[in-house]
């Protein structure tokens, strides 16, 4: 095989991405292989399978595989991976069962695929059927369990791994820490940190980066700072993780200070660093600084703005109330605004109650993503707050006609290394019953001692006040906090992870709870952290 074709296919695999443009490029490369008669060559065939898998085309991946004369175990693994990448879990299993020869690598591919697909029961079955389990097998299971929220089980596997004499590797540790960060499992993260310190992994930069990210995303920015400052070697990822962590928690000035410190150390920021920096400015209302960094990114570091940077700028103007400026900025962008850009602007309209601009944004957004439930709900709430109930009814009716269902709000809290998930309006069980009972007690006390009055402006107008108050009182973050107060020891910080943006009423309740009960609460919602202490929030009511 010519070295030219070899280099061509190595490059194509590394650059492939799941979008139409790269698939078209991939097909062109496939044609080149056909012309030169290389399609049936093991290396080229396997590379094509992987490429099609990364491009999201399992059909072409299987077609190439079927034309291979004698596929080896690497080719079989490649087609199984392609099936998983494209969401064809049953197809992956079918190919695995058809394999004439299997090795531990093949089983590990199945383990990883099932774990990423959230099919942990199937992953467990494959794991326990394996005759030989290497450190990759154990690490894959631990990471998979952690990412899917089975932290007690992940910890049990972690203990057993050590008991049989195997040692977790750098990849498994960063993977599990990433899982902890994803769902806010700080207690399990702390246990891992202890192991890392005792086992000598604390000198590895990637592991420390994962620790910084985990602590920041679990709401413990103090520990994130401590790990970051103790690092002997800091990469651009280290600095960016710290800037991002501070930005998420509302410490914009400190994030900017760390950025300047990074520059002073001679570390060149990348495009992700600037996303984090602009995010910090937008969530603190630092318009002048944000505009300055947006300009410096290109002028000083020759980094072309991406849609993420433009989104931060729209958010910067929108949150500060400069809605027309935000709209003009979008219209003048040199790249086509995507749904996220228009959604950011619609969110700003919601914050500031600008119905007219919201109606200008609506068709642009709905043309791109007409079936997104959150956009419809946000528009409905904008109309409700403005008292435009006919428009509310129109949006709701449209959602019903198009069978668009509202995304259920959920919140999670970790208690004794177990994650509890609360969903608004879910069927009552023992756990939720305990939360509801405690919440009633809390709301009563907040009314008496904190002067709490529910904010019900966006609740449907055709129900009475008592029903409106009952509706907002059942939001998932209130239930999670109530459960935390019921179960956690006094003096512990209550940490909540929520999938949606916290509403104004819940934000008020959290502030009052921190004051009346003398507690510290940390809520991570869809876009940032809110740290409540003594009746105030770290966002300074700017979110």
Automatic annotation (TrEMBL):
The keyword Repeat applies. It comes from the Eukaryota. InterPro entries: DYW_dom, E_motif, PPR_At4g14850-like_plant, PPR_rpt, TPR-like_helical_dom_sf. One of its GO terms (biological process) is RNA modification. It holds the Pfam family E_motif. PROSITE patterns: PPR. Keywords: Repeat. Signal peptide: none annotated. Gene3D superfamilies: Tetratricopeptide repeat domain. PANTHER family: PENTATRICOPEPTIDE REPEAT-CONTAINING PROTEIN (PTHR47926:SF411). NCBIfam families: PPR. Belongs to the PPR family. PCMP-H subfamily. This is DYW domain-containing protein. It comes from Gossypium tomentosum.
């Amino acid at each position: 095989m010519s070295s030219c074709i070899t280099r061509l296919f190595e490059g194509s695999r590394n650059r492939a991405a799941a979008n139409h443009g790269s698939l078209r490029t991939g097909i062109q490369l496939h044609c080149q292989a056909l012309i030169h008669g290389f399609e049936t060559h093991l290396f080229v065939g396997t590379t094509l399978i992987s490429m099609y898998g990364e491009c999201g085309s399992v059909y072409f991946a299987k077609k190439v595989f079927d034309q291979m004369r004698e596929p080896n175990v690497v080719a079989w693994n490649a087609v199984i991976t392609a099936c998983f990448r494209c969401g064809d879990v049953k197809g992956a299993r079918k190919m695995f069962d058809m394999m004439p020869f299997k090795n531990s690598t093949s089983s590990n591919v199945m383990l990883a695929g099932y774990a990423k697909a959230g099919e942990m029961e199937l992953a467990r079955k494959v794991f326990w059927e394996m005759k030989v389990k290497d450190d990759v097998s154990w690490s894959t299971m631990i990471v998979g369990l952690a990412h899917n929220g089975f932290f007690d089980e992940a910890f049990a596997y972690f203990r057993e791994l050590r008991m049989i004499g195997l040692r977790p590797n750098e990849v498994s540790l960063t993977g599990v820490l990433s899982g902890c960060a994803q769902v806010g499992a700080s207690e399990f993260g702390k246990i891992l940190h202890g192991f890392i310190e005792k086992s000598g992994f604390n000198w590895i930069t990637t592991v420390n980066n994962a620790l910084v990210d985990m602590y920041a995303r679990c709401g413990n920015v103090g520990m994130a700072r401590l790990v970051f400052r103790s690092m002997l070697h800091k990469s651009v990822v280290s600095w960016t993780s710290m800037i991002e962590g501070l930005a998420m928690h509302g410490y914009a000035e400190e994030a900017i200070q760390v950025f300047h410190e990074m520059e002073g150390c001679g570390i060149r920021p990348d495009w992700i660093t600037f996303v984090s920096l602009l995010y910090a400015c937008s969530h603190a209302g630092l318009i002048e600084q944000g505009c300055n960094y947006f300009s410096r990114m290109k002028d000083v570091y020759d980094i072309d703005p991406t849609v993420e940077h433009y989104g931060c700028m729209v958010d910067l103007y929108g949150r500060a109330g400069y809605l027309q400026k935000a709209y003009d900025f979008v219209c003048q962008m040199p790249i086509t605004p995507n749904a996220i850009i228009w959604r950011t602007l619609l969110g700003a309209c919601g914050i500031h109650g600008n119905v007219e601009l919201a109606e200008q944004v609506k068709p642009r957004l709905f043309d791109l993503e007409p079936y997104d439930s959150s956009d419809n709900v946000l528009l409905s709430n904008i109309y409700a707050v403005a008292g435009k109930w006919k428009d509310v009814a129109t949006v709701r009716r449209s959602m019903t006609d198009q069978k668009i269902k509202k995304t259920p709000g959920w919140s999670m809290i970790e208690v004794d290394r177990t994650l509890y998930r609360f969903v608004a309006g879910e069927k009552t069980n023992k756990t939720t019953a305990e939360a509801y009972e405690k919440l009633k007690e809390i709301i009563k006390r907040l009314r008496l001692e904190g002067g709490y009055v529910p904010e019900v402006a966006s609740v449907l107008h055709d129900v009475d006040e008592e029903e409106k108050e009952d509706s907002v009182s059942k939001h998932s973050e209130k239930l999670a906090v109530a459960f935390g107060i019921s179960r956690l020891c006094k003096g512990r910080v209550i940490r909540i992870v929520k999938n949606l943006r916290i509403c104004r009423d819940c934000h008020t309740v959290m502030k009052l709870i921190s004051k009346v009960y003398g507690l510290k609460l940390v809520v991570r919602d869809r876009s940032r952290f809110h740290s409540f202490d003594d009746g105030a929030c770290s966002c300074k009511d700017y979110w």
